[in-house]
Amino acid sequence: MPNNNSLTQLALQKFKKNFWGVFSLGVIVCIGLMSVFAYFFAPDASKNANQMHLSIHSKKPGFDVKMLVLPSSIEEDQSVLNKIFFGSVNTSTEIPVQSYKIEDEFLVYTEYALDGLIGQEKKIALDRFPNKDYKSFIENRNFVFGTDKYGRDYLSRILIGSRISFFIGFIAVFISLVIGIFMGSIAGYYGGKIDAFIMWIINITWSIPTLLLVIAITLALGKGFWQVFIAVGLTMWVEVARVVRGQIISVKEMQYVTAARALGFTDFRIITKHILPNILAPLIVISAANFAAAILIESGLSFLGIGAQPPMASWGAMIKDHYNYIILGKPYLALIPGFCIMLLVMAFMLIGNALRDALDVKS
What we know:
This protein is α+β, with helices and mostly antiparallel strands. It folds into 2 domains: 3-33 and 155-358, MetI-like (MetI-like fold), CATH 1.10.3720.10; 60-148, no CATH class. 58% of the residues lie in helices and 10% in strands. It has helices spanning 3-16, 19-36, 38-41, 80-86, 154-190, 192-207, 210-221, 225-235, 237-251, 255-262, 267-275, 280-304, 315-322, 332-358, and strands at residues 63-70, 93-103, 106-111, 121-125, 138-143. Strands 4-3-2-1-5 form a 5-stranded antiparallel sheet, with no helix packed on it. Helix 5 (154-190) packs across helix 12 (280-304). The two termini are 22 Å apart. The chain crosses the membrane at residues 20-42, 164-190, 197-219, 279-297, 332-355. Belongs to the binding-protein-dependent transport system permease family. Residues 162-352 form the ABC transmembrane type-1 domain.
């Protein structure tokens, strides 16, 4: 068996023995699957889980209510895959009701009202329902995490909000790796004036506070979903570049690199085929840390109102919308998304520590 494979197997065995590393990997995989198939798991599968019911806003977890769903005459032209990954275009109308009865050819219902008040009584013709089967359109709706201040299902918003927090890690880390490896490789391999120039760019970028730089880039690119991903990625390449540069400086004079030069290999091949594969360990560890940092930065941007824009769900934006409820007797509206952010960030930090220990050749 080749030596690199045996080292890989050894690192894998060491990783499997780390309980918190394996546990964190399981948490990350579960959250990843949940974010990809969020609309499949969400009770409210409408786009962005944006079905509002103001009469039942800010209800506690476990709240139950009868929901009258009025069918729409508008036909939905949407594929099954589109519904699973992007949510359904909801054309029906949902009305929370306290009670209902049948009078003549009409369904008479009393709308749900807050604080024990009696809601307005309204009626609708039974012809509105297919075959006058009104019972199929009245269901008992349970809100596991309660409702937010707009009466939206909080569990659905949490599930769909996981998409931004999870995927920003992948996209931001990918952008930072591409730029950081390129800049760090050139600076470390060639040295001299090229190294001095790149280090000057790195030091200037490093001196600007990360959040301030992200805000500036976000404002330049505009507010939105993808702009935040790009902005966070463009601010995280500096750490990668410094690590790559330092690693290449330490290994570029080693015998296998000298032998590659003697054989006439190009600089590109020496860097990509010989040097980079041997410095993957610190890159993997720093990527795990950058995942966590990207999630926190995005949450901060959403809290400031320049991240993902309404009605798109985001854990940071959910904290922003409900942080004042902490002193209004309903702290869970801010604590639930906060706990989700903490859990995901902690999972990435723990898996980073586990990878560091597994890839440490001295241990």
